[in-house]
Amino acid sequence: MSDNCLSKNCDCEKVEPSPGNCSKLYELNDLKIRPAMRKISMSEWCNVQEAIRQAFYAVWCVFTNIINFVCYILKAVDCLERKVDSLCSTAKCQNAQLTEILGLLKGTTVENIAISMKQVMSSGRVKLVDINKDGSFKLKWDKFANGTSQGEGTITGKVHYTTSLEKTGDVKTHIDKVTFSNISYVGKKGRFINEAIISVSKLDGEKVFEKSYDPALAWSGEVREIIINKDVKYSASAGVKNIELFKFFDSWVDTETTNTISIGFFTSTQGCVIDCENC
User: Fold this and answer.
1) What's the domain range around 149?
2) Does residue 126 share a domain with residue 251?
C-alpha cells in the first residue's frame, strides 16, 4: 500500500492493541485522516490526485490498526468465553459434590441426634427415664411407706417424633404424640388401710388415666395417647432440653407427688477441638 503513496506522509505507525493504547488510536485518527481531508479541500487541481491517494492511505492505516484492535478483542473474548465455560463446568462439578457432601452431612447430623428423658418431681428431685433412640421409654416409680418400698409401678410408651436438618443448619424436631403401651404396678406383701391414687394427665391438666388402688396388690391398665404436635428448632451443637410432655400424679397417705416428664435432644458426637496453643 505504501508503494502507491509517494509522499513523506505515507508512513503508517503500528499501534499495538492494548487497553492502554486506545488514546493513541484516537491520536492516529486525528493526525492521519483529518489533515488528509483538509489537504484535499485546499489542494490545487493538479495536486488533488496525490492528496486523495494520501487520504485513502491514511484511512487504510487507521482501519488497519482498528482491525488489529478488533481481532485482539475477539481473541480476548474467545479466550474469556472458554475460561467462563471451564469455570461453569468446574462450578457445576463442585456444586454436585457439595450437594452430595451436604446430603451426607445432613444424614449424619440427623443420625447423631440422641434423645433423653427425665422425671422432675414436685420436691425438685430429678430421675432419668430409660428411653431409646426410637422414642420408646420405660418409666418407673416406687411406693414407699415408713422408708420402705411397698411396690413398684411401670409406665411404658413411645414418643413419636421426626427430625430433619434446616437449610440454616439448625435441627428441627417435630414431636407428634406420646402413646402408652401399658401402665402396671406390682405390690409387695402387706396390708394397708388407705388406697393410693395415680393419674396421668396432659400439661393442661386433662386426665388420660386415673386409678385408686391397694398398694399391696398388682394391677395393670391402659393410658390414652397424648397429642403434642409441637416443633422445636435448635442448633446441633447446643441441643434442646426440658420439653415437657405430660404429668403423672401419685398420692398415698400423707405423700403427694406431681411428676413432670420432659425430653431433650442433643448431638451424640463431639465436634473437633482446635487447640491453637499446641499446633
Assistant:
1) 110-267
2) yes
